[in-house]
Amino acid sequence: MFKKLLSSIGIGSATVDTKLSKAQYTQGETVEGVVEVRGGSVEQRIDEIYLALVTTYIREIDDKKVEEKAVLARYKVSDSMTIGPNETKTIPFQFALPYDVPVTLGSSKVWLQTGLDIKMALDPQDRDYLTIEPHPLVTAFLEAARQLGFRLRDVQCEQAPRYWQRRLPFVQEFEFRPTGGAFRGRLDELEAIFFVSEHGVEAILEIDRKARGFAGLLAEALDMDETLVRFTYGPNDIASLPQLLANAIRRHS
After folding, report:
1. Are 165 and 235 in a shared domain?
2. Which domain of life is it from (predicted)?
3. DSSP readout, the chain?
4. Residue 168: other Cβ atoms inside 10 A
5. Rounded (10°) angle between helices 136-147 and 241-251
């Protein structure tokens, strides 16, 4: 009875260790691996084994920026099971990453958090960080921007206004600065948000025009120098993407 009581509060209880086939993935790619469950000093009933895909984002509260956690998805690895003392069980799993998982550039981090639901017990947890590369269509945009003279300056997940929110309460913003090419001297910066799907990408571009003359300075002071542009493209547009992007920027700068 004493051992069972200790186990119920997390002493001598089961532990988990998630092992991935690799640590680097692209948005939408399938993740494969195994969860190893090791029994503690007593037999235990595990109600569920789960994997939670987690990230953080910046939220502004009372003019202060705070970091919040967000669960992007939760995956059930197994149903209820019993693990004996010092027993080890290996459970394979696979799941597809969502297309809106943030890429791990800038300050953005993504990890898998593994846990056991054990009645009346503390949850043993295992955290595995992932490297998330952009979807190939997002990579194509980054390359197109580079060809036009833009340098990727910062990437950050921030709370989104309601009209930009889709499945998640935040968006990942990519901030570019023109360091060469035709737009140097014409723009202060270019920001992009990507909504990726199976069929293509919807990008929201914020074009921050460089102040030119008194009217430009006045517009900048009143935050009227920024233009939002909806820019969509698909796999068939990759070859012409630099020109399409340049045309979109020119129309609004």
Report:
1. yes
2. Bacteria
3. -HHHHHHHTTTT--EEEEEES-SEEETTPEEEEEEEEE--SS-EEE-EEEEEEEEEEEEEETTEEEEEEEEEEEEEEE--EEE-TT-EEEEEEEEEPPTTSPPS-TT--EEEEEEEE-TTS---EEEEEEEEEPPHHHHHHHHHHHHTTEEEEEEEEEEPPTTT-SSSSEEEEEEEEE-SSTTBTTEEEEEEEEEE-SS-EEEEEEEEEPP-HHHHHHHHHTT-SEEEEEEEE-GGGTTTHHHHHHHHHHHT-
4. 19
5. 60
Q: Which domain holds residue 67?
A: 2-133
Give the integer Cα–Cα distance in Å for 172 and 72.
13
Instruction: Report the domain count for the chain.
Output: 2
Look up the pTM and report it: 0.82
Out of 19-23, 118-122, 182-186, least confident range? 118-122
Quick one: pLDDT at residue 45? 85
Compute the average pLDDT of residues 235-248. 95
Structure tokens at 21: 């086939």
- Alpha-carbon torsion (230, 232, 238, 241), positive or negative: negative
CA distance 233 to 46: 47
Tell me, yes or no, whether 142 and 232 share the same domain: yes
Whether 104 and 123 share a structural domain:
yes
Query: Residue 58 maps to which CATH number?
Result: 2.60.40.640
Q: Which of 1-15, 46-60, 129-143 has the lowest mean pLDDT?
A: 1-15
**Cα 174 to chain center, whole Å?**
12
